[in-house]
């Protein structure tokens, strides 16, 4: 059985959150931390606040476990739909780092919003919205 996870990275100073989904949350958390420590995170808004407030101002938390008991081939889409609902809820409650509920490749709007377009391996063509690497 496959299990997906919805998670958040919360700035405890400002309350702003980043919502994501993954199939391997420990590896994903390590990847976020590594990119933030190395000043190479693809979300420039999150990176700027990490640099401003420091690592101790951020909590990484699992919000929901999303099981896939049938190993459905559309599970990734379903996981991103659940993620999108969490992003929408967070947007209503306050500011979010997410600039779009589900990332589908980097276009002009992501460039204007501060995404690092050199990071196409994670969010590039053929890998719409995948954050489970």
Q: Could you walk me through the main structural features you see in this protein, from its secondary elements to its overall organization?
A:
26% of the residues are buried. The chain has a single domain, classed as GIY-YIG endonuclease (3-Layer(aba) Sandwich). The chain has a 3-stranded antiparallel β-sheet, with helices on both faces. It has helices at residues 25-37, 44-53, 75-93, 108-113, 120-123, and strands spanning 2-11, 17-22, 58-68. The protein has 133 residues and is of the alpha+beta class.
Radius of gyration of CA atoms, rounded to a whole number: 14 Å
Q: Can you write the helix and strand succession as a string?
A: EEHHEHHH
Estimated helix fraction: 25-40%
Main beta sheet? 3 strands, antiparallel
Order of the strands making up the biggest sheet: 2-1-3
CATH superfamily: GIY-YIG endonuclease
């Amino acid at each position: 059985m496959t299990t997906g996870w919805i998670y958040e990275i919360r700035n405890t100073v400002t309350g702003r959150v980043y919502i994501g989904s993954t199939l391997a949350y420990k590896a994903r958390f390590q990847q976020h931390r590594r990119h933030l420590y190395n000043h190479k995170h693809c979300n420039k808004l999150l990176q700027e606040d990490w640099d401003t407030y420091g690592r101790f101002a951020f909590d990484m938390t699992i919000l929901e476990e999303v099981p896939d008991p049938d190993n459905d081939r559309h599970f990734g889409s379903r996981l991103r739909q659940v993620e999108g609902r969490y992003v929408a809820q967070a947007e209503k409650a306050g500011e979010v780092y997410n600039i779009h509920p589900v990332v589908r490749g980097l276009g002009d709007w992501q460039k204007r919003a501060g995404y690092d377009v050199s990071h196409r391996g994670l969010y590039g063509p053929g890998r719409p919205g995948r954050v489970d690497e």
